[in-house]
Amino acid sequence: MWTRKNVKQKGKISFYANFWKCVLVALILSIVIGAAGNSGGGTGGLVGNSGGIFGSYFNGDDSNGSDSDTDDDGVFVNVDVDEDGITATWDKDDQAITGIITGTIIVAVIVGTVIILIVTALGLALQYLLLTPFEYGCRKFFRKNLDEPAKLSNIVYVFDSHYKNIVKTAFLKDLFVWLWSLLFIIPGIIKAYEYRLVPYIVSENPDINYKDALAESKKLMAGNKWKTFVLDLSFIGWDILSLCTFGLFEVFFVGPYKASTHAALYETLKYGIDAK
Q: CA–CA separation, 113 vs 271, rounded Å?
């Protein structure tokens, strides 16, 4: 039975043994994860409420409480008598103007939707074709560093070996987590922990089928999801200290310490608590 103390100690020892390379790779990992998180975000809210102002106008309601009627040609007439006895009517020209406004709004919504789809597609392409391979490479670096001082070349291994298979596996893993998240947040979090070890599994067996990679991660994490969640919570104190140092402590200690601990967790669950 593994403990947080053993896993964190194993991660810390391997981090100290290859200090500066671990700092560099952890920095790259944090940049990659941050960029990946932003590459597909920020697309919501561009298509807002377009009918709030015009809805009542198109339906014949005047916010000033004026009376409405139609003329002999069936054209909507909006009568508004001011204090001088002057009336204002909505004639055929006004109706044509509102038609232009309506068409403009529809075109704007369509164009906005197309732009959103294009930006989202480009963001996903950037994330899975470039950023995610680097993330998986950094995960491999920290796993290899548990046994011996790892080489920086590990962070680009995806581009040299089974690139398409690894990108496919990464995409489907995230897709399944996202789909589970639609049921509510909690199922998505559970799936994220269930598939957490996929990058390490893939790093050891790059040609593994995505179904087998997900199944193996699920098997290894069975009964360990809650303990892993508590392991993550145990770093809160370090995270607060990082904020107090404007991120410097995160770069030079907390980031590589976390990444090494996560790799140590995989090795412990995969090979046992005494794995070297």
A: 49
